[in-house]
Amino acid sequence: MEVVGSVVGGNNAALVIREKKGAELELGELVVVESEAKKYIFMVSAMEFGTLLEEGRLLTSAGSMVEGTRPRIEFPEDDLRIFRKVRITPLVEISKVDGSYRAPRSMPHFLSPAKRASSEDFSFLKRPRNEIFLGKLRSGGSVLDFDYYMDGEQMLSHHTLIAAQTGRGKSNLVKVMLWEIMNHGKFGMLVLDVHNEYFGSGANKGLKNHPKADRNLVYYSKSPPPGQKKLKVSLKTIDPEDLLGILELSPAQEGALQLYRREFSHDWIKELMREDPQREKEYERKGVQGVTIRSLRRKLGNLFKIRCAMEGEEPCCEDDVFDLEGFGESTIKDIADALERGRVVIIDGSSISDDTGLVIMSAVMREVFRRYEGYKDEGTLQERVQVGVILEEAPRVLGELYGGNIFGRITREGRKFKIGLVAVTQMVSVIPDEILANIGTKIIMGNEMARERQRLIESSPQDLSQYEQVIAGLEKGESIVSSIFSKFPVPIYTPLFEEL
Ligand SMILES: Nc1ncnc2c1ncn2[C@@H]1O[C@H](COP(=O)(O)OP(=O)(O)OP(=O)(O)O)[C@@H](O)[C@H]1O
Ligand SMILES: [Mg+2]
After folding, report:
1. Which sign does the torsion angle of CA 478, 392, 369, 404 carry?
2. Measuring from each residue's beta carbon to the nearest atom of ligand 1, which residues come in under 6 Å?
3. Where do the structural domains in the chain lie, given as residue ranges?
4. Is 232's pLDDT higher than 90?
5. What's the pLDDT at 315?
6. Residues 431-445 pLDDT 10s
7. Which of 23, 115, 233, 312 has its CA 20 to 30 A from that of 71?
8. Is 1.10.10.10 the CATH number for 131-227+328-499?
9. Probe residue for ligand 1, chosen from 143, 171, 428 as the CB with the greatest number of ligand atoms within 8 Å
10. Are the C-beta atoms of residues 48 and 10 closer than 8 Å to each other?
11. Helix (H) or strand (E) holding 437
12. What is the pLDDT of residues 390-415, one digit of tens each?
């Protein structure tokens, strides 16, 4: 292994090495320092120059070089008085005796040599049982030949956040993860694909090209390709809860929805859309104002494209996806069945509004939650498949309105029911603290916005305060995985899906 420097200072939070000339370490690179019993892996977190020359001499010499007066003789190439000091932050310490590892609690010796890390240095990492491939280990900009896996059950049950600014490879990572999940069919994953980029079309590689796609992939679309499912959902299977956080509702409006739900059971939307002056008068006496109902009609009418019915007429849904009657009545249940069987279910969200896509996701997850609560009560939850839902642009439904909706419920108590969330977002800063604190794994990709980086650093399971600069400089596909299940923040590179 190539020696790149020698430990000359620092403390337990970060050591300083004097860099060997020509080593040219970069931010984010990994270096290894060993003692008799332990091996430590560090990440380069800062660099600066060092010199032993007295300032006047230094300035005079630099001056004579730039002015070209006596250019060559001032600093010989191998002048040991000029060097670079590289700050390295400890990631992990590994026992040479039994290969066990932990977050660093000791330091290597003064003047120990530091070497460039290689894939062999990570042999202490064992493959987890229900593995999900996330990418290859990475030392700065170089990819190491070492596949990094996390345990899918841990990742999903305790939720995962994928955060990056636009174009840094979030969707690519999701595709790579789903491909891997389809290999073993052990997890049910629900995905609303707002850009229709996961399934693949024609010659474009997508999850449809997976060798087990026939068995492990289900695709719903408004206009499905041959052999795939047409997205049709009966509004009878939608509950007022599915609108929370999606429509902005006043407490009075929420109350009115609940009233209709109680009175008309699964026909609550249809009955709400029916203009019935007699009924409205009666409701006024119960404290539900006509204006509240009219406003709800407008909101629901816009959302599901329902035409209000005058007296004596039936309300009519003009949307191709929704139906007021029984058509599509089994869709929510069918999707929940597929998830329970460990399938990846993609809903093509590109041709429906974001809002209606989220309503459908909510209805499905509510059904899964209901079933899994039942399994827990009857004592069979252990045998069930772990289910996860991927939410893109998560702050929308995890934001301040999240309180009562199913996604908020999943983040707070899903882990008790084997239901988890993968939140994909550009804006972590607007996700409430309570939710961020409940997310066990954070995959941090490149972000130029200092505020977003700060928020990620503050809410990460490991102390990443030294890595601000490293995070700022992450390129496409590069990330740092910080998880309550790994003992150190792991730098990885997720390969391009098309090249898997
Ligand atoms: N690991 C990678 N290596 C090389 N190129 C990549 C990698 N990941 C993604 N890209 C490329 O970068 C572009 C953006 O990737 P992607 O769509 O995954 O980003 P994103 O973070 O999801 O962006 P958005 O926020 O806009 O959804 C794509 O063209 C993709 O091909
Ligand atoms: Mg994307």
Report:
1. positive
2. 164, 166-172, 426, 476-477, 494-496
3. 3-120, 131-227+328-499, 236-323
4. yes
5. 86
6. 888 889 999 999 999
7. 23
8. no
9. 171
10. no
11. helix 433-437
12. 998 776 777 665 567 899 899 989 99
